[in-house]
Amino acid sequence: MGASAFIFDLDGVIVDTAKYHYLAWKKLANELGFEFTKEQNELFKGVSRKRCLEILLDIGGITATQEQFDRWMVEKNEDYLEYIEKMDASEILLDVPKVIGFLKDRNIPIALGSASKNARPILEKVKLLPSFDAIVDGNDVSKAKPDPEVFLIAARKLNVAPENCVVFEDAVAGIQAANNADMISIGIGDAQILSEADYNFNDFTEMSLAFLESLTSVQA
Ligand code: BG6
Ligand code: MG
């Protein structure tokens, strides 16, 4: 039996929200008196908000009290929410609708598997919420990627065995989570960075429908 369910990461796969996360973290870093570069922001992909702040404070050499830590978490998210406030369907990444449309036409269930606690409002803004048969996000998990929890919950919600699920991911930790879940992992982004993926594409424009067809009909 071939792949019978597909799980999408959100940030960097469906929408390019990494740039808004970056702006919000950079603002906080600047307020705290240090720089935060786009290269350093790469480390934040797929990583929970809490872990991101820990890494940011390490970069700045800052030791925070629990009260400061909690306040900066809130502050970063409030700034992020301002940046994403005006997001709309025009920010869906190229050819994502092509892939979702292909799967919907064949009644293949799709789920979201994201570390973000803001996943639902973002899907609502870009009008993709109704397309998903299941949503698993940062509010539903206790263990962060590369732990497979987020994808295993998604598979369970779709009632599909993990080995019959395909995961689209742009983060190293996300590819590792998919591999740890025993799912087929597809890296969206730099193939050198995502070298642990089963398949690699720079973006969805490079992914043919014939390729998707081959995944769904492969004999396991
Ligand atoms: C992931 C992003 O999808 O979600 C990370 O790649 C981000 O950069 C994480 O930190 C948590 O997002 P949020 O929206 O809950 O702060
Ligand atoms: Mg991502």
Observed structural traits:
binds 6-O-phosphono-beta-D-glucopyranose; alpha/beta; 6-stranded parallel β-sheet; 9 helices; globular; 220 residues
Please write out the topology.
Elements: E1 5-8, H1 18-31, H2 38-41, H3 49-60, H4 66-84, H5 96-105, E2 110-113, H6 119-125, E3 134-136, H7 149-158, E4 165-169, H8 172-180, E5 184-188, E6 199-201, H9 209-217
Parallel strand pairs: 1-2, 1-4, 2-3, 4-5, 5-6
The chain binds 6-O-phosphono-beta-D-glucopyranose and magnesium ion.
Magnesium ion is lined by residues 9, 11-13, 45-46, 170-171, 174.
Give a quick summary of the entry:
The protein is built from nine helices and six strands; from the N terminus they run βαααααβαβαβαββα.
What would your notes on this structure say?
43% of the residues lie in helices and 11% in strands. The chain is α/β, with parallel strands linked by helices and 220 residues long. The chain has a 6-stranded parallel β-sheet with strand order 3-2-1-4-5-6. Helix 1 packs across helix 4. The model has no long low-confidence stretch (mean pLDDT 96). The structure holds 6-O-phosphono-beta-D-glucopyranose (BG6) and magnesium ion (MG). The site of magnesium ion (MG) has 9 residues, from loops.
